[in-house]
Amino acid sequence: MSSSSSSISGSSRSSSSSSDETVVPLLSGGAGARLYSCANCRSNVADHSDVISTAFQGRNGRAYLLGGVDNVVVGPREDRHLMTGLHAVADISCAHCHELLGWKYERAYEHSQKYKEGKFVLERSKIMKDCW
Ligand SMILES: [Zn+2]
Prior knowledge:
With 132 residues, the chain is an all-beta fold. Helix content is 0%, strand content 45%. The protein is built from no helices and nine strands. It is globular, with a radius of gyration of 18 Å. Residues 38, 40-41, 43, 94, 96-97, 99 line the site of zinc ion.
């Protein structure tokens, strides 16, 4: 174990805020990890830093578009006609309680929807904010 006592003052924040999402101020204090949990069993399924869009349209209302999720099981891939065209999607379920949480975009056939490939959608009604 090397005990290096480097005391460099001045913390340089390298967080580039490229997204123009509106951050709603919640309860102040405790700026820890902001997590999303399964609304059914409360196991962590996503991190807020993975959220790409909070204004996504789900099947039953608002949903989140994410670059990555945790503790989910990806179901079989199938072609599905969505509002934005034909997509190859796979349902994603909670790994613990198997509640259906949303879906994954395996492939987008429309060129304008290619950015969704490999992304995940979580229905807002299926998840809850934890540690916020
Ligand atoms: Zn669950």
